[in-house]
Description:
The complex is a heterodimer of chains A (about 250) and B (about 50). By secondary structure, chain A is α/β, with parallel strands linked by helices.
Amino acid sequence: xxGIPGMEAFKETCQYAKEKGMIVINDAKRGDIGSTAQGYSNxxxxxxxxxxxxxxxxxxxxxxxxxxxxxxxxxPFIEDCKKYDKGIFILVKTSNPSxxxxxxxxxxxxxxxxxxxTDLVEKWGEELRGKYGYSSIAAVVGATYPEQxxxxxxxxxxxxxxxxxxxxxxxxxxxxxxxxxxxxxxxIVNASRSLMCAxxxxxxxxxxxxxxxxxxxxxxxxxxxxxxxxxxxxQAQSRHCHCRCHHDHEE
Amino acid sequence: MNAIDQLIExxxxxxxxxxxxxxxxxxMLPKCVTSKYSRRFRRxxxxxx
Lengths: 251, 49
């Protein structure tokens, strides 16, 4: 979008965020044949061989990956995740309006395309499961399709979700909570416009000037965090309740 | 440490499961920022010609 200076700013921003102790996810949505995928993986997760040396280029923590081209195209990323303790979020069910055009199609085995991809992600992630039971091979599942979000959570107990679509795209906190487990884990929720442009929003524009854009972003981020925590806690409690009721009936 | 464990531990530590998405389209940036860096933006637009 901004050419070479944009790439420089991107690299500086990644480094700055890491210095501040943040986890950096590059939403690059990469997907290409094996050797090219290896190049992308070198650039974002691993190292690029240059002569006798190997150099880390962007060195982010996670990158988003498009699985459309199949296993051999995702594998270079998975191998680098093992080698460098990195992770990927694979597009499973995206938040955009046309995402159903291909992702919701029913296959001969009766599953939707996104369900088939869910199964592949669970399988690809088997070797990279950590101490919480979740794998570093994770998934992108949008907040804008809550039914699918709940279904995928049920079918992919080891898969962490990056959940886009909150705020400006219309995803609500209660919908997002369907992607979380009973321990309040399982999802990480993205918001871009509502945070970056908080100083312009009806909620904050009277309280913060344009020069105070960072304070407005912070205020909105804290508000969002509270709203999500209340929703995910409520979701977990209602599941516990259903569980208890069920046992009561059995007794 | 396993990447997802690192992410989960940060989420637990901050009690915050949110990502701040940076989508730096020009019109989304505050004017007080774009005006400060106008020379850099001009350099950027030149490199497209």
